[in-house]
Amino acid sequence: MIHQRKKDFLFFLAQPVLGLAALPVRWGWRFWARSRPWRLHLGCGPKYAPSFINVDANPFHRVDLWLDLRNPLPFPDATLEGIYTLETLEHLYPDELDQLLLECRRVLQPGGFIRIGVPHLRRAAEAYLAGRGGWFADWPRSYRSPGGRLSNFLFCDGQHRNAFDLSLMEEVLKKAGFANIVESSRGQSQWVEPAAMSLCEADADPGEPDRHLFVEARKPG
């Protein structure tokens, strides 16, 4: 795994290129994206969902749009049907998170949905307090101590800048103007089709505990 300091430096150097990469979407929207109700998959990583516009800043992943999510989304107001993101928002600082959620609300149609999956702070705290060290994965570092395993989960070797339980996720979503906020579960959604969730949310080991918080919300209207 690339150290976060190196990632920050690379993203700093790539900012002009990432900005240029989004220009064709801005220019071509009237001819391309208005042809059907589009959905975004933000921070897709290696999990390319065919029914979504897949967005990521990693040039080595298959993407439809190469973009640093700290930049504005290159779509007009109220034009997208839905947004899906998994294991992405925890990598943003609080101000970056607020800005991205405002952008998500801006580009969604009235009544459009957002589905979010992030590491589950409450479940991690419960496992730590109960002494269930086996709940934590040995990644990105292998620790034996309970404190080390909790720190590993929350901070991910400096990769994570946020940790969420349901109450915090509700707070930041309401702040951005979302409503109808509900906790969901892996593979269960009011809006995302099962095939996409099967691709993106499948466990590598079905016997492992679920370490994610899933939340869904709508843009009012």
Which tags fit this structure?
Rossmann fold, single chain, seven-stranded mixed sheet, 221 residues, alpha/beta
Explain what this protein looks like in three dimensions.
- This protein has helices at residues 4-28, 94-107, 121-129, 146-155, 166-175, 194-201, and strands spanning 39-42, 53-56, 65-66, 80-86, 108-119, 179-184, 212-218.
- Strands 3-2-1-4-5-7-6 form a 7-stranded mixed beta sheet.
- α2 links the parallel β4 and β5.
- The protein has one domain: Rossmann fold (3-Layer(aba) Sandwich).
- The chain is 34% helix and 19% strand.
- It has 221 residues and is an alpha/beta fold.
- It is globular, with a radius of gyration of 18 Å.
- α3 (121-129) packs antiparallel against α4.
- It contains 6 helices and 7 strands, in the order αββββαβαααβαβ.
Number of DSSP E strands: 7
Assembly type of the chains comes to single chain
Report the top-level CATH class.
Alpha Beta
Strand order of the largest sheet: 3-2-1-4-5-7-6
Compressed to H and E, one letter per element, the order equals HEEEEHEHHHEHE
Anisotropy-based shape: globular
User: Largest sheet, described in full?
Assistant: 7 strands, mixed
Rg, rounded, reads 18 Å
Q: Give me the number of helical elements.
A: 6
| Number of domain modules | 1
